[in-house]
Amino acid sequence: xxxxxxxxxxxxxxxxxxxxxxxxxxxxxxxxxxxxxxxxxxxxxxxxxxxxxxxxxxxxxxxxxxxxxxxxxxxxxxxxxxxxxxxxxxxxxxxxxxxxxxxxxxxxxxxxxxxxxxxxxxxxxxxxxxxxxxxxxxxxxxxxxxxxxxx
Length: 151
Known about the structure:
The chain is mainly α. It has two domains: 29-101, Arc Repressor Mutant, subunit A; 110-150, no CATH class. The chain is 40% helix and 7% strand. The chain contains eight helices and three strands; from the N terminus they run αααβαββαααα. It has helices spanning 6-11, 29-33, 35-42, 65-69, 92-101, 110-122, 129-134, 143-150, and strands spanning 57-58, 73-76, 87-90. Strands 1-3-2 form a three-stranded antiparallel sheet. 13% of the residues are buried.
């Protein structure tokens, strides 16, 4: 077996470098930076959660022109009700884009999960959070349902 010198070892290319997988974006980076506009136009939070209660965005700038060119919004002419500014409406393709590209919400910690469970329970009870914890109401999976049946 031949022993290589330090210079020969460095010259040897070794295995080919591994390429990391990067998914292709369906649209340019301009659209991705405009995702908050689509979410706001639909009345959603930054994670795309919520019930869409509107579908318009009024602006005098050109930030929505990229979204119109991508087919994610439609531009309507300026009207008096919008202060003389154009109205942009999210298309079905834009709604699908928001569903697919909104980041997942952060995972709630154990304490935050308990607090959210108490918030649901507190709508039907006046029990303070500390008392609810001491009673170990947070361990009851159906704490809200049990209390409704008893009360």
